[in-house]
């Protein structure tokens, strides 16, 4: 729904990081999309080229990894992957769980190559 | 603490960005970062929250699909609360909702979101100068009708309220877990229509909510039946008192 805004946020984050690596060009952005994030990976891929012209991410690709929901049970200690609409502990059934992954959309990595102009 | 992602835990900005050792193939470099795309919003939300706490204002973020009865609930509820209320309403195009709510006498401000499908913390921050927080006990924020996006955007509220009307499917919490699992209170609205909708079973909605590891209370009410609003009024008064006490004993 707000995937275009997410694309822009990705580019902002990437550009901030890129500033630490002068003379490098952005080839790809690695992104983790959580099962509970409400973000549609396909839409992200589709919209990214529309958000990137005139930025240092122009021509760069998105590499998206889907992150299933994971919980850690504070009662029995079990850590497990769960369906997004069944978040209780699969081992003991307790609702006393911490959601440890699958909640957000994260920029996890940048793939850079030597900038042709600088070489 | 979460070793896998560091982001699943709410309000842990220190863990959110953490550099990992990078691998370096011949002509390409992989830079590992770990940055939440909602980090910028959360930073602004934290500022909002600090302002609200300092003034002892209880902020409630109302979220639901379009037409679930958010505006009608505020119209019916506000005159019944013995507290000073104000309202921020997010709407895509019109100011109809703001005009409806303003009739209660509560200061009401419209946030026109244009194309945006949700409110974010910066929109709330931009609207704050219109409000005198010293003269408000409760600030209701009516989010844009949408069951997906609003869930991702912390506004700085104290509590999130998810509404589900009996005209919708009773399994909505299972279909939109991202929003419902974070709700602090679930309201089943338009209960006056239940006799016409035998297929809607409130206990099934609550069961779906429990599947999301949620212990949030679930109240069934109708904006057309004032008596049905009493448990919600009590919940709000309790939360308001609890928020004030928390501020007295643990200043933000
Ligand atoms: N019968 C009945 N109708 C209701 C109730 N609450 C709201 N409605 C009707 O449902 C329709 C939508 O209600 P609103 O309060 O505008 O819903 P909303 O969630 O604010 O809608 P958006 O702001 O567009 O997302 C209106 O026609 C209301 O009169 C209720 O408790 N009972
Ligand atoms: Mg409305
Ligand atoms: Zn959105
Ligand atoms: Zn367990």
UniProtKB/TrEMBL annotation, chain A:
Superkingdom of origin organism: Bacteria
Binding site for Zn(2+): 73, 76, 89, 92
Keyword ATP-binding: no
Sites where the protein binds Ni(2+): 2
Keyword annotations of the record: Metal-binding, Nickel, Zinc
A Pfam short name: HypA
Family: Belongs to the HypA/HybF family.
Function: Involved in the maturation of [NiFe] hydrogenases. Required for nickel insertion into the metal center of the hydrogenase.
Protein name: Hydrogenase maturation factor HypA
From TrEMBL, chain B:
Record has Hydrolase as a keyword: yes
Domain CobW/HypB/UreG nucleotide-binding: 59-216
InterPro entries: CobW/HypB/UreG_nucleotide-bd (IPR003495), Hyd_mat_HypB (IPR004392), P-loop_NTPase (IPR027417)
The UniProt record lists the keyword Calcium: no
A Pfam short name: cobW
Keywords noted in UniProt: GTP-binding, Hydrolase, Metal-binding, Nickel, Nucleotide-binding, Zinc
Domain of life where this protein originates: Bacteria
Stored SUPFAM superfamilies: P-loop containing nucleoside triphosphate hydrolases
CDD domains: HypB
Similarity field: Belongs to the SIMIBI class G3E GTPase family. HypB/HupM subfamily.
Name of this chain's protein: Hydrogenase maturation factor HypB
Organism for this UniProt entry: Uliginosibacterium aquaticum
Upper taxonomic lineage: Bacteria, Pseudomonadati, Pseudomonadota, Betaproteobacteria, Rhodocyclales
Gene from which this protein is expressed: hypB
């Amino acid at each position: 729904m707000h995937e275009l805004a997410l694309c822009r946020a990705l580019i902002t984050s990437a550009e901030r990081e890129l500033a630490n690596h002068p003379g490098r060009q952005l080839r790809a952005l690695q992104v983790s999309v959580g099962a509970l994030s409400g973000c549609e990976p396909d839409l992200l891929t589709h919209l990214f080229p529309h958000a990137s012209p005139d930025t240092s991410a122009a021509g760069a690709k998105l590499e998206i990894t889907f992150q299933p929901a994971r919980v850690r049970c504070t009662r029995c200690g079990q850590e497990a992957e769960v369906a997004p609409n069944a978040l209780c502990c699969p081992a003991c059934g307790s609702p006393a769980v911490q959601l440890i992954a699958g909640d957000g959309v994260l920029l996890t990595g940048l793939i850079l190559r030597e900038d042709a102009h600088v070489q | 603490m979460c070793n896998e992602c560091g982001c699943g835990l709410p309000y842990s900005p220190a863990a959110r960005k953490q550099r990992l050792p990078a691998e370096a193939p011949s002509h390409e470099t992989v830079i590992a970062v770990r940055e939440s795309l909602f980090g910028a919003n959360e930073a602004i939300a934290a500022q909002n929250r600090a302002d609200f706490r300092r003034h002892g204002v209880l902020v409630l973020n109302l979220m639901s699909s379009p037409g679930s009865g958010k505006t009608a609930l505020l119209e019916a509820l506000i005159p019944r609360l013995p507290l000073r209320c104000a309202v921020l309403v997010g709407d895509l195009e019109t100011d109809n909702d703001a005009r409806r709510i303003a009739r209660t006498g509560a200061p009401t401000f419209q946030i026109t979101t244009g194309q945006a499908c949700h409110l974010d913390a910066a929109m709330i921050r931009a609207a704050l100068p219109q409000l005198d927080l010293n003269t408000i006990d409760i600030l209701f924020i009516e989010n844009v009708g949408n069951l997906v996006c609003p869930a991702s955007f912390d506004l700085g509220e104290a509590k999130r309220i998810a509404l589900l009307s009996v005209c919708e499917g009773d399994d909505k919490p299972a279909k939109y877990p991202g929003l419902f699992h974070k709700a602090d209170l679930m309201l089943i609205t338009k209960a006056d229509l239940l006799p016409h909708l035998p297929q809607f079973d409130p206990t099934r909605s609550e069961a779906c909510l429990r599947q999301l590891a949620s212990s949030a209370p679930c109240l069934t009410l109708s904006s057309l039946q004032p008596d049905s609003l009493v448990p919600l009024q009590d919940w709000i008064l309790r939360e308001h008192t609890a928020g004030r006490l928390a501020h007295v004993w643990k200043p933000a």
